[in-house]
Hints:
The protein is an alpha/beta fold. Helices cover 39% and strands 21% of the residues.
Amino acid sequence: MSIAYDYSRETTPPVSASKPKLLLIDGQRVPSACGRTFNTLNPATEQVIATVAEGNEVDVDRAVAAARRAFEGPWRTMRAAERGHILLKLVDLMKKHADEIAALESLDAGKPISGVLRQDLPAAIDTLTYYAGWADKISGEVVSTREDALTYTVREPIGVVAVVVPWNFPLMIGMWKLAPALACGCTIVMKPAELTSLSALRIGELALEAGLPPGVLNIVTGPGRVVGDALVNHPDVDKVTFTGSPGVGRGILRGAAGNFKRVSLELGGKSANVIFDDANIEAATKAAASGIFFNAGQVCSAGSRVLAHEKVYDEVVERLTQRAKVIRMGDPADRTTALGPVISEKQMKSILDYVDIGQKEGALLTTGGQRVGDRGYFISPAVFADVKHEMRISQEEIFGPVVSVIKFRDEADALRIANGTAYSLAAGVWSRDIGRVQRFAKKANAGTVWINTYGYTDVRLPWGGVRDSGFGREHGAAAIENFTEPKAVWVNLNI
Length: 495
Ligand code: NAD
C-alpha cells in the first residue's frame, strides 16, 4: 500500500513556526513563566508546524487563581441568559472561522479534513449551541416536605474546573467539556494534549472575541506530567473532567482525594461489534470497517473487536480484509483521503508492537499492519483473523487501525466474549432478530449500544462507560449535573 501524499505541499508555510503560540491566562495571551516552548508536528510529514508555550506549575497557579476570580466575579453572577448569548456568539465565530479551525485540527492531529468537516467541527458547534441553550434553563425544583415550610432546590455551579483533553478529538472532546461547564457558570483551566494544542488555543482567542470575561477560560499548554499533574492536584480546583488513558485516570482519582474534587473520567474501550449470521453482512462489515478505521482507530469507542458468528465468520474476515485493502490513505488535507497517519511516533511504535504481539500469539494477519513510507506515521489498516478472546490484541486497547475478528457459536458465547474485557464503553450488534438484539442491548456491559449501526454519538444522549472505561456521563442533562451541585433551601412559613 502506498500513500497518496503530495510532499510538494510542504512548501506551504507552517502555522507559524517563528511565533510561539502563547498560553491564555486571565484574558491575556502570555508566554510561560519559564519562557520555554515545544514543537508541535504534522503527523503526516513530521514537519514542525508551530511552537507552543510550555507551561509549568507557576502558570497553572496563575490560571487557577484567574479562574477563581472570574468564578467569584463576573461569570457566576452574570444573568444566565447573558452567558448563553456569549456562548452563541462563540458559535457564530466558530462558524465564521470554520475552514480555518478545521484545517488547523487536520494539520495538528493528522486527521483527514473530510472527517473533521463531517464530524469533529459540526459536533463541536452542535455541542456548544446545545449547551448555550441550557444556560438559562438550569433549575431546581420545589419539593413537598412539611406544611409549615417551603422547600426547594437550586443547582449551583461547582466552581473551577480542570479540563484535560486527549489528542484524538481535541476540538470535539474539548467542547464536550467546555460547553456544559461554561453554560453552568463554572470557570475553566484547560490543558490540551501536548500533541494537539492548536485548535484549543484558537477557540480560546475566539471565546475572548465573543465576550467571555477574562479568566473564565484559561488554557495552559504543556506536558501532562507537569501541567496536567499540577492542575488535577491543585487544591483550588473543584472538579476534573478527563478523557484519556486509564493509567492517568487512576492518578487523577488519587490526586482528587486531596481536596475531595469531583471527577469524571472517560478512558476508552475495547468495544465489540457483534455480527450474527442473520445480519445484513454487507452493511455490517461496511460499518465495522469504518468503526475501526475511522480516525486511524484512535477512537475510544472504536469497534476494535469484531465478533462474527461461525457461519459467517469467513465472509466477515474476507469482506473486512477487502475493505481494509482499498481504504484511501494519504494527505489529511486532501478531501478524498479516508485514512491519515496516527498521531505520533510513540503511538505508531506501540501499534506496530501490537501487530507483532498478535502474530506471536498465533493470530492471522490477513492484511496491513505495516508502516507505510518513511515520513509521517502511516500504518496500513490491519485485520487479524483467528483471534482468541484471551489474546492481548483482543483484551488491550491498541488505539490504532487494527481489528481483531473473533468467532462465536451462539448468543451466550457472543455476550460472554463481548463482555469479557476490563472496558465497558460501547458495543454494536447486527441481526434481524428483534428479540436477540434487545436481549444483547440489555446484557451488554456498555454505556452505549448500537443496533444495526455503529459509532454514532449525539450531544443529546449520555456518553461514557464504567470500569476501565471510567465513570460519569458526558452530554445531555447528565453533563449539567456534572458541573453543578444541588442545594436544598428551607423557608419557615410560620415566622
Ligand atoms: P494520556 O492519558 O497520557 O493523555 C491524555 C491527556 O492527559 C493529555 O492531555 C495528557 O497531556 C494528559 N496527561 C498525561 N499525564 C498526565 C498526568 N499525570 N496528570 C494529568 N494529565 C496528564 O494518553 P496518551 O499517552 O496520549 O495515550 C495513551 C493511550 O491512552 C492511548 O494509546 C489510548 O489507549 C488511550 N487514550 C484514550 C483516549 C480516549 O478517548 N479515551 C484518548 C487518548 C488516549
